[in-house]
Design brief:
By secondary structure, this protein is of the alpha+beta class. It has two domains: about 70 residues, no CATH class; about 110 residues, no CATH class. Helix content is about 40%, strand content about 15%. It contains seven helices and six strands. The strands form two sheets. A four-stranded mixed sheet has the order 1-6-5-2. Helix 2 runs antiparallel to helix 3 and helix 6 packs across helix 7. The protein is globular and about 50 Å long. The two termini are about 15 Å apart.
Length: about 210
């Protein structure tokens, strides 16, 4: 899976022109049909239907794998938009109570608790992966100092924040219009609430090119 911009026309143009690259091997992606339609809940009473494009690594020296091109307002295998999920994770990391978080999200308590539980289960590998991303984006610069909070969720959320800030500094005006939550989705390749283990060292999916 590759996290891409929300404009389907622009994504198609970049895919056809060879401007998108495989997250596994870095070779050029070519059009490869579409993924199954899915629904994204962008507000409590508003559901949007999308059908993401697929691309396949088409180089003779590439891996030959295909990938879903997921708009950056989504996360892999989640119905709710990343904006809502990320806000809940930020609130939990800040020590907010469950009632406050659930009310702000406008989602069932079981759903919100599920997001946080899933994130907490992968908090340490997520933190480590975003620390790698920060180092990658901050080549030649000083890394931000993070004071441990004594909570795996809070430490991971803090590391995500500084890593995404490093990507913003590296890319400059090219990502000024991208929201904080969408930066998180893009930089995680859509796998923030990992339904599978996060990429191994050297395979962090989206360092910035497809924002």
């Amino acid at each position: 899976m590759l996290s891409v911009g929300p404009d389907a026309v622009l994504v198609e143009r970049r895919l056809v022109s060879g401007a998108l690259t495989c997250p596994e091997c870095g070779q050029r992606l070519a059009p490869w049909g579409h993924a199954a339609p899915r629904f994204v809940r962008v507000a409590a009473e508003l559901v949007r239907r999308i059908r993401p494009r697929r691309g396949i690594c088409s180089s003779a020296v590439g891996c030959g794998r295909s990938h879903v091109l997921l708009p950056r307002f989504c996360l892999g295998r989640r119905v709710d938009a990343v904006t809502v999920i990320w806000a809940a994770l930020l609130a939990r990391a800040a020590g907010r109570g469950w009632r406050t978080i659930v009310a702000a999200a406008g989602r069932p308590a079981s759903t919100v608790r599920g997001w946080v539980a899933r994130f907490a289960a992968h908090a340490e590998p997520i933190r480590v992966a975003f620390a790698r991303l920060e180092r990658h984006a901050n080549t030649g610069g000083d890394l931000d100092r993070i004071v441990p909070a004594g909570c795996a969720v809070a430490d991971a959320v803090a590391q995500i924040g500084v890593a995404c800030a490093a990507v913003r500094r590296a890319r400059g005006p090219a990502v000024f219009a991208v929201s904080g939550a969408e930066m998180v989705a893009a930089c995680s390749g859509g796998w923030l609430l990992a339904a599978r283990p996060l990429p191994a060292a050297g395979k962090w999916i989206n360092t910035s090119r497809h924002l």
